[in-house]
Amino acid sequence: MVTCVKVHVTKAQDMKKELIANNQLDNNFFPKKIGEYIYFPVQQYKKETEDRELDPRLEKLTAIPFKDVLSKILTPKEMSIAKTAHDIMGTIAIIEVPKELVVKEQEIAESLMQSNPLIKTVLKKGSGHEGTFRTQEMKFVAGVETKEATYKENECVFTVNVEDVYFSSRLSTERKRIANQVKEDEEILVMFSGAAPYPCVISKITKAKNIVGVEINPEGHKYGLQNVAKNKLTNVELYCGDVREVVSTLNKTFDRIIMPLPKTAEEFLDITLPVAKKGCIIHMYGFYHVDEFDKAKQEVKKYCERLGRTYEILEIVKSGQQSPRTYRICVDFKVTN
Asked: What is the SS3 assignment for 240?
């Protein structure tokens, strides 16, 4: 006998979504329909339940290669254009579907959930990162209908709406790399701070004195404040506004400045360098072809010469790939006067 929650068929879908969202559905058994009611197997359900005999699931709830599942519903020709790479934020998976396969996007999404039982929601990218806020349209495809994810990284927990706020889980290693360089009592500025992943990670795992984040997107700022509170951080200050307007009003200089805006970060060096202390480390991001990394160095040189600052390039680090032979890079450089 299995503990079940009984629900009328007209409310079954809503109940299923609620159980999945709260991790209360027992996936070791199949639900059962008896008359006008569905009996869902549950775990730790606090409301009224009944015991019923249900058929056990024979398959184990372990992740299996997405390609293996996908190959069962797509032809070899379709497999050759299908995109199996996807992002995962908590229980949300974000996929890309070529226009030739849009008619099968529902099946593709369900196959992804089948391949990984931890995925409860599948969204499809509807656009690239666009506009001042670098946000990306998302279309709900399958599972629990939500665009808000809770995600764990580097001892921190983040909540973010993946459509309204730019957030990349792929940068978790890069955030840890930066945090590992932070020395005790540093004062740090994070420009374009979004939902505060850099400030939170640095605060959580270092002894920085103070971390200031500036974000222009009100939704990003809202989630940033929530994430700072959620992680119980006391040395993070977040400001909502244009960095060109906010930074000049802070009346502070910094030991380290992070510029995670990969398309136009170099254009903000004119406001970054004036608030950099002597010895300040600046982490400037950009998208560059592998043969053009020197262009990033030239941008640093141009602005430092214009503002009378001397500098030393410390390292250029690849932190992601945008397209073949084009990478997101981080130029680490030190202001020496």
From this structure: strand
Spatial contact of 102 and 95, defined as CB atoms under 8 Å apart = no
Q: Please give the model's pTM, rounded to 2 decimal places.
A: 0.78
Range of 19's domain? 2-52
Residue 281's closest CA among 215, 187, 203? 187
Residue listed under structure tokens 């001892």? 155
Residue 51 DSSP SS3: strand
Dmax (CA) for the chain in angstroms is 80
Q: How many domains does the chain have?
A: 3
Neighbours of 127 (CB within 10 A): 11
CA distance 234 to 229: 8
- Domain match, 317 and 265 both: yes
Which SS3 state, helix, strand or coil, does residue 85 take? coil
Total count of residues recorded for the chain? 337
Q: Which residues pair with 191 in a beta bridge?
A: 214
pLDDT number for residue 60: 45
Is the Cβ–Cβ distance between 68 and 115 less than 8 Å?
Answer: yes
Q: Tell me the residue type at 109.
A: A
The string of pLDDT tens digits covering residues 276-287 is: 999 999 999 999
Residues 325 and 201 in one domain: yes
In terms of domains, do 204 and 291 share one?
yes
The helices-and-strands tally (H runs, E runs) of the chain is 10, 17
Name residue, tokens 């024979």.
58
Residue 161 lies in a domain: no
Give the three-state DSSP class for 232.
coil
The angle that helices 218-230 and 197-205 make with each other, rounded to 10 degrees, is: 20
The residues, any chain, with a CB within 8 Å of residue 130's CB and separated by 6 or more, are 136, 137
- The 3-state DSSP class for residue 181 equals coil
Q: Residue 185 is encoded by which pair of tokens?
A: 């009592």
User: 237 lies in a domain?
Assistant: yes
Kindly report, residue by residue over 216-266, the tens digit of the pLDDT.
999 999 999 999 999 999 999 999 999 999 999 999 999 999 999 878 899
